[in-house]
Specification:
By secondary structure, this protein is an alpha+beta fold. The chain has 14 helices and 22 strands. The strands form 6 sheets. The protein has a 4-stranded mixed sheet with strand order 5-4-3-6, covered by helices on one side. Strands 9-8-7-10 form a 4-stranded mixed sheet, with helices on both faces. It starts with a helix and ends with a helix.
Amino acid sequence: MSSAARKKSVLAITATALLAIAAPLAAGTTASAASVSTWDKVARCEASGNWSINTGNGYYGGLQISMSTWRAFGGTQYASRPDLASKQQQILTGEKILAGQGQGAWPSCGPAAGLGADHADPYPSAPSYPNPASLADGTLVKSPNGPAVKVMIDGAGVPVAGSDVTPDKYDLSKIVLIDDAAFNGLPSAPPAGTVVHDQAGGANRYVVIDGAALPISASDWTADGYNIRPDMGVPTSWLQGAVQRTLSNGRVVMDQTGNDPARYVMVNGTALHISAAEWTANGYDQRSLLGVPTSWLAGSAARQVPNGTIVKDASGNDATVYVMAGGKAVTLSYADFTGLGYDKRPLEGVPGTWLTAAAAKAAPADGTMLLAQGNNTVWQVTGGKKRAMTADEFGAGKASFDDVVSVPAALINGLPTA
């Protein structure tokens, strides 16, 4: 550091200078005068970039500030000496000195670093973003750090795809920026029970449960009371995906009308009836119970549990494991369970009463395709009997090997040949 700079920095502070800095000190603000990179240049010139330097020459820290100047410009609010303060605290105090004395407080190093020409705020305050919970439904939001856009629907941020912008009439000029963490933390689906429709238009209405969109029939719209709920427009692409989703396994549901006392548990898209005895004994009464559209529930309850689903009694009283094949629960030995690879699949608990009935079925439903381990013949169930299928029955537009269920040989052997 030059001797001239040292002399300048230890000049007694005049009354005029004190008056000049009194207001900013009282307000707790700093001048926006130079970026951190410019202050780094000053420090390299003054103190070889050492922000903790104290050589005993009467000047301290990276900016070589004297004690009288440090005290006069409020540095003691941070530390008793400049070299004991952090780099940021020294720079903030340097900002005040620069505002009061100009770059001449560092006669050689200030001009050399371009201190007087740099008017950037070294530590700008973080921008203040609105709380997404305060935004109206339909507001488009994004993080300042990424291109993704979401639309606020009942507290959730539903993703908006580029293909949605034009048909859904989203005005990208009205996007509201929200904090990055808040943006990423938004639920991606509206809360359970939210009634939605395609933002692009159309008469179809859906109710959201577990991120799935369940269709509401015309008869359910009023009978189930959906007509009195807010009806939210959601992005077309999101709705198309939500319609394909199934409710979470283990979700307990009932008819939304409340006219039917029956309760059901969802397993891979199928609603399984829960008997009155099992409602409490199996702990279903401890789960959240959600109403679903009447017609949707009827269709789900009539649907077979998908082939290949592995199930057991939810009560835990019976350790037997089964594989579903055409609506029939087929018993698996331990050798079958591991040999057929079913130990790699999720094991779903189901109501014991329902399971007993499914296991008692004489044969899988017609059309079910079966394959035994170690045998290349695929058998199709027809009228409770089995029929060997030929290779030319498989292919594009025909039967798919993906639909074939691996079962114990005993099941196939027990079926009469058609």
